[in-house]
Amino acid sequence: MPEWIPTGLLKPGKMDYMAQTINVLFLAAEAEPFVKVGGLGDVAGSLPRALRALSTDDLKLDVRLVLPRHSAIRAQGERPLGIFSIPRGDSEVQAEAFEGLHEGMPVYFISGDPITASGSVYSLDSRLDAEKYTFFSLAALELQRQINWTADIVHTNDWHTALAAYGVLTQRWEGGIHRTGNLITIHNLPFLGPDVSAVLQSYGLKLAQTDLPDWARVLPLPLGLWASDAIVAVSPTYAQEILKPEANGLYEFLNSRRETVSGILNGLDTVSFNPADDPALGVNFDTESLEKRSENKMLLQERLKMASEPEVPLFAMISRMDPQKGVDVALTALRNMRRSKRKWQAVILGTGDPKLEEAALKLQKDMPNQVHVETRYDAGLARQIYAGADIFLMPSRYEPCGLSQMIAMRYGCVPVVSAVGGLNDTVKHGETGFVFQEPKPKPLADALRAAMKIYEDRVAWRMLQQNGMEQDFSWAKSARKYLELYQSLIKNL
């Protein structure tokens, strides 16, 4: 076996100045800039670095990120660390680990047959994903022993890494992990993961007798929720929503654990998303030079071959084409506003459900002078839309946190959102945007009409824009709340 080289900070008591050290093992299925499929990639790429940035002379936060070594991983300068084995039945499965650095943070990549077999971050074959993420979760825990470094906190995210939380609790019972706390962040509760009962047993983990519903005892996310010392939803409102009967089949269990359930709002990479120096924009601007923003609207209309009408409000929707996002709600609302007394334009960017793509293109065909649709993903165009459009639509049926409304505000695009999840927590009605109660076409259309009326008052509109641009959505704010939770868990172990 190749020799492992420890890369961690010294444990408390071994440092000359006796600073407290909190070691955090952060597990995720994806993370920017290495691999990104959805919003989890944004969080896992930003939060660990924001936590490390909180280190002081008296408190060292040694946060380390662990990812599966997907075939799509983009990493530079990584070095092989070694090979170790994970017992599986009467045999073993070899895991190979690699280490890289991202802005000074150790990042570990774990490979092995279960990971390479699926060929993608998320497979359409649930059996492949069950094996892949069970293996990854257990290998990530074993990695600590191999590098002679022990986490004080194991931080898991969604169902893909939830079994690491289950593994921590199991090893705690067996005396294998001493005083290690664990927590799980829920990014999207409906995705519970595949049946892992057979896979778990093959790796030597027994299914515990839990107070979960029978159907949930074989699924990764419920097992991780049950095993975690703390459960964090990605916004305060979403933390309340998951406790309601209509939200999911786990509401009784979650209510039995409600003292350990909290909501911490996701942050935004305010360095990347900064209209003052974003290279994707034709003209940069900030709150003091907001008048320059109109040039981006003109450039956007020109690029999309839309009529150049600076005084007409331009709506925007940048979204995955999915019923959850309320795309159908937006399309119906816009169609119903076809003969509105006030003129408007709309641009829609996104891909996904073929039926929703078709409906969006049909709207464009029926309203060619008002609606422009791009059924694709284009990050550069998205930023130009944020910087050029006037009003941003997010009529989500549910939205655990959402980043688009934060980006929109940061770029002076006033959001109109449904009162769910993180949308309710980030948009202040009448101050930074408009919030409507039901994700249905008529309430959305009414909110859009109210926004258009205020749009005509340039002073009031500029105030809305400036208020939104001045909101603090930085990851530092969220990281401090996670740090407080880590400290509380360690204190109570």
What's the short version?
By secondary structure, the protein is α/β, with parallel strands linked by helices. The chain has 17 helices and 15 strands. The two termini are 34 Å apart.
List the helices and strands and how they pair.
Layout: E1 20-27, H1 39-52, E2 59-68, E3 79-88, E4 91-102, E5 105-111, H2 113-116, H3 126-146, E6 153-157, H4 158-173, E7 181-186, H5 197-202, H6 220-227, E8 230-233, H7 236-241, H8 251-256, E9 261-263, H9 293-303, E10 314-318, H10 327-336, E11 345-349, H11 354-366, E12 371-374, H12 379-388, E13 391-394, H13 404-410, E14 414-418, H14 421-426, E15 434-436, H15 441-455, H16 458-469, H17 475-492
Report on the structure:
With 493 residues, the chain is an alpha/beta fold. It has two domains: 20-267 and 476-492, Glycogen Phosphorylase B (Rossmann fold, 3-Layer(aba) Sandwich); 287-473, 3-Layer(aba) Sandwich (Rossmann fold). It is built from 17 helices and 15 strands. It has helices at 39-52, 113-116, 126-146, 158-173, 197-202, 220-227, 236-241, 251-256, 293-303, 327-336, 354-366, 379-388, 404-410, 421-426, 441-455, 458-469, 475-492, and strands spanning 20-27, 59-68, 79-88, 91-102, 105-111, 153-157, 181-186, 230-233, 261-263, 314-318, 345-349, 371-374, 391-394, 414-418, 434-436. Strands 3-4-5-2-1-6-7-8-9 form a nine-stranded mixed β-sheet, sandwiched between helices. The longest helix is centred in the N-terminal third of the chain and has 21 residues, at 126-146. It is elongated, with a radius of gyration of 24 Å. The chain starts with 19 loop residues before the first strand and ends with a helix. The model is unreliable at 1-17 (pLDDT under 50).
